[in-house]
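Are you able to produce any protein sequence you like plus the matching backbone structure tokens because I've never seen that pairing?
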Amino acid sequence: MSLAPSPSVSRGGITIQPSYFTSSLYIHPLRDDILHLIQVYSNHYVQTQPTQPFSLFKTVWNSIRWTWMHFKVFDSRARDMFLKVTMRLFLAERMVHTEYPLNRVVALFGLYTFLRTQPRTKAPSLHSVEHIEIPIDLYTSIMTLPQTLTAHLTPLQAHAIYVLSALVKAQAFYILPASALHPFNPRELPREIFVQDGFELSTPVDEQGQELSGSAIVPEIPSKKKGRPTKRDKKKKALQALHQVDKWLEKNTITIHPPSGASNPASRAVEHATPPPAPITTHVLMSHPPTTTLNNYRTQKSQLLDAISANSGLSIPETGKVSAQEALHRANAAVLARMKKLDQMAAEKGLEVGGEGGERTGLGRVEKAVAELPQGADGVSGPRGGILGLLEGGGLGVP
């Protein structure tokens, strides 16, 4: 008797890709953590001069939570990359001959501790690494490390010899070609550089992932591609446009100091009693408007309103024609209805349209200007044109 197939009830697990451990998201923080470990141990060693240096290292290792370094990575491929990259940062970056001898010893202790504290469980079975990849020239260099520990570093010599002997006896070193041949895989770390959406690296980075001279992360518009632009491309372009607008506004913003207005002794006495008016930050076009363009606009608008006033007759239903005055009313009503709709949509999202300038801006002033349209038709009782009269004080009750 055979059972019918049924779906599995086990829950899917989250798998970390191996490329995460070769990316800047992992490499840069780990470099900082290793440097912090070296600095903390070095400070304790110099201050206390311990007789048991490795016991001090274990205390420091536990106190700054390096015991949590073996976090849960169950996938064998990802775990293999995690272990190899971590040991490589201890070995190939902090144990080279150009490093200070005390730093090299701390890196050796860290490498040995990390290798020997790999969890070995059967449920679930975790992948472990038995060998440390090391270039032949670096292997020769660290074998002579105990001889460089002199003066106040002499207590470290015996412990360094023991750790190296234990690693050699366990055949932990896997010899690679010389460092000049770039034997590691990947060749450089980090291999993948994480960049936030909307930003690009303007220049390459060096082998340690540091930016070269003159490099910076700046917004850039990507080259035009074939086909419909992606959401990422649209976001980059929008950020670039916003950045350019901000720069233009910053360049064209000025500060105006309004005059106090004191022209006689009595006014000057009042001026001393009250603080001077605060400076006003405004745009250059607000303080120095383009007069020629403004005059041309006013002239053409005046001619338009004169023509509308001359053609103020009623509509002719037989011909389907609408008088100019009625067309102006309809245009004002359409603009006002559109602004009300925008204000309603903004209110639904918790936003506000206009209103920064009080009664001089916003929907309320537009409503008043539209309401003044019949009164201003003769050009005497108020600004003409309704919304077209905003420049002349429409909606403010200015005669």
Q: What stands out?
A: Strands lie at 132-135, 173-176, 200-201, 217-218, 253-256, 280-283. The CA atoms of residues 82 and 183 lie 18 Å apart.
